[in-house]
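*** Backbone structure tokens ***
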Amino acid sequence: MPADGLWNGGGAITVTTAAETAVMTSTPPRPFGPGVDPVSGAIPHTSAVLVWGSINFTPGTGTTGVNIRIRSGAGTSGPTLGPVHSVGALTAGTPVEIPYSYYDSGLGGLSAGFLQYSVTMLQTGAPSAAGTVNYMTLNMLPAPVFPV
């Protein structure tokens, strides 16, 4: 695995009408070690992590927006890291490209020596049909910690 994590998702991922859906998880979890290791992808102890990517999404019928969350761990149960990324003015059936990013300076994705993040989506408005993630990316990159 390269020093920066890159996960690509192809094929349809269904975003249900009434529940938050995990659309991608960084798997396997990345080791958090003493230095960036090009084989294992270990992220240095002194780093923060930049998590970013893009989602190509087709909203379902009645959907006018979507909430995107970056969560710690796998699935929808981990804590949300940072603010919810809300995107509005969507048109059902019309694909849209949605970029997202989060600078994890507190390493909220760290658990038992490994970093893992999930990206989740929730359709908003009055969705009566599932939406579809057509394609997406999830990237992780060690980043410097900036003093405040």
